[in-house]
Structures are given as structure tokens and as C-alpha cells.
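Q: Okay, next protein. This is ABC-type transport system substrate-binding protein from Pseudoclavibacter helvolus. I've checked the sequence twice, so it should be correct. Can you predict the 3D structure?
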Amino acid sequence: MLTKRDDYNWASEAFDHEGPAYLDSITFNVLEEDSARQGALEAGQVDSVHFVQPSEEQRLIDDGFNVIYGEYLGTPINFVLRPNAEITNDVNVRQAIQHGVNRQEIVDTVFNSNWKPATSSVQAATPGWVDLSENLAFDQDLSSTLLDESGWTEKDAEGYRVKDGTRLTIPAYTSPFVNGSGQILELAAQQLKAVGIELEIRQTDASTYSDIFAAGGTPIFPVANSFLDATTLRQYWGQDYTNQFQLKNGELEEQLLGVSETANGTDERAANLAKLQETVLEEAYTVPIVDNYQVFVTSPEVHGIETNAVGRPYFYDTWIGQ
């Protein structure tokens, strides 16, 4: 529980009032299941929840609830494709996956009209973002050509590609930290089957995800990152940090340094960040899916919740009333 400070009087000018917060206290409840959170909200047991299934958002809006989309700086919901894993160590296979996924269909099916397909390896709200939609075009013919070039020319009775007696099967792991990751992967698996790729979806939870994420050779998993400045990409993608792509030979280090060592808002930073976005897509280290939001749903009586640059809520101006 958080309680307000009665003597607080140094709020930023960005807020709508001065002095103490309107709310006397905030109590946080941990409800891990989406259905449990939504049920508690609809039953009036809580005033606000963080995340519901995207398919439920419009119905809640229609029922009078407030759905707040906290747009943030960072990377979209994307599939990381690791080049050190079996099968995805072939750039042609990675590119075939990239062009075999129909982002618009995923948005239309899993999400709703308030969400937009990703257009680059960083979110559209990020300073220095470059629209690389053409590099991500849904093109099953191109995917098929790329797989043919890598020797995946035969197909088995189920329509999956085969090389040297081995089916083109790639494990793909869900993430408890990416909203709708299971549904996204299931639809992507259907789309990729059309070009002969089998995604073998494996479930994770909060207790197992970190170990699977860190394991060498985990080929595909959904992720979304937030940051206040693009220099933070080095913490996610750099070899001396999280190294999400598990690169080993300094493939991105020079470009990441080029972004982190230049000032935000300069032409040099913009050029370096544009090149980094292009390289990550050309090498198909990632398949951007949908620009992400931090989603909060409140009862009709809750007013004044705002979000910051990474989509986190401010409750200072929040009040409850008719």
C-alpha cells in the first residue's frame, strides 16, 4: 500500500494540480491470471488493472470502462531470432520467417484497431525511428525462395519442409511478460506452415522464463523492451550486456556504440540509429510484430491516470468520482 504525503507540494508543472495527491492511498493486489484481473475489475473489487487480453479491450470500452494505452519508447513486440541456434543460424531461414509472418493479420485477429503493426525494430514513438515497412513486407513467395536457396526443397506429408531427412521445426517459447504472446505465436505458426516452417510452441511462466531466455541456443521467443533513450539498446543487444540475440563476434557493437556515443536529437545520432535499425532487420535478428503499449483498464469512476515515456502510470492527478 502507498499512502499520500500530506505535506507534498513540489510537483512538476507537467501535472494538473499542486499540493498533495488526490488519492489517500493505493493498494496493489497481485492477480497473475488475465481472467482474474478482469473479473475483479468488472465485479468492482478493484478500480484498475494492468493488462487484459487485447480481444477484451473494445468490449470493456463499450461497457463504459476506461482503457488507457500508454505508448512508450522502446522496441515493439517482436520475435527474437537467435543466429547461434540450430536452423535459425541460417540468415535465409530467419528472413523467411520475417517475410512469412503477416503482421496485419495478427493485429486484426489477436489485437484490435487501437494497435498498429510494427514498422521497424524500434517503436514508431522512438526519436530516430525509421519506417522500414517495406523491409518487413509479408511475402510468402520470397520466403519460399529463401528456403529453397538453403536446401529446404522437399516437403513431408503435412506440408512441412525437409532437408536431409530433418523437418524444418523450430521451438518457439511464449513469454509471461508479453501480452498475448501465446496467441501471437499460434497465429504465426499457422502463417508459417503455409511456407513449410513448423513452429513448435512451448509454454513458459514467470518461474521458468528467465532460465530459458538465458539458455544458449533458444531460437525464437517474443520480447518487448522499453527505454527512455536509444542508447539503452546497447543494454539489450550488446554482447557485454543482456545480448538478446546472443551474438559472439561483435556484429552490432560498432553500431550500438555509434548510437550510445552521440547526442540525442543530432543528425549523427539519427543516422547511426537508422543504420542500426536497418542492420537488425537485414540480418533478421528480429521479427517486429506490433507496436506495444502498457495497457491499463479502470472503472468509469477513475479519472486522471497519465503515463510516462515508458508507459508507466502516474497517479498524482488521479481521483475517484462520478
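A: Here is a summary of the prediction. The chain has two domains: 2-71+294-320, 74-290. Residues 8 and 123 are 35 Å apart (CA to CA).
Q: Noted. On to the next one.
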